[in-house]
Amino acid sequence: MLKKVAVALTLVAAFASAQAQSNNAFYAGADIGNTKVDGLDSADKLSYGIFGGYKFNDNVAAELNVRHLAKWNSVNVSQTGLSVLGIVPVSKEFSVYGRLGYNNLSASASSGNTTVTASTSGALYGVGVNFQVNKEVGIRAEYQRPASDTKNFSVGVHYSF
Length: 161
Known about the structure:
Elements: H1 2-17, E1 26-37, E2 46-55, E3 60-72, E4 75-89, E5 94-111, E6 114-132, E7 137-147, E8 150-160
Antiparallel strand pairs: 1-2, 1-8, 2-3, 3-4, 4-5, 5-6, 6-7, 7-8
Subcellular location: Cell outer membrane
Protein name: Porin family protein
GO cellular component, one term: cell outer membrane
């Protein structure tokens, strides 16, 4: 699956490089949110993360993210994802986007001197809205499905450079 995503990103990059590029194509940001896993209600659901990407044009971007999804007792769950974003500008400041990518979910549990880790990989998808405050700063809200039983809603801010 990771190879397919890498090939898709390469094709998108090759296509987009032929088109005129806008200023401030690179961006980086941080978000905070809430994670829900089906069947696990007694959890610290706070999520937070960082992300960075490259906007090829007004309609396509590639993004890498790292996020702490949640903590249940002594179990920490984190996410690393690589995605392509399809962007639809609604106005000069406002846009909606869809996300399709690949992510790795890692869990680690500690008890005494013993730490156990596990991970799984799979599809990542989501939808979001973005409001561009000015040329450099934007605010976004997003709903993601990092796994079939996991939902994450986050709000974030990003800076384009």
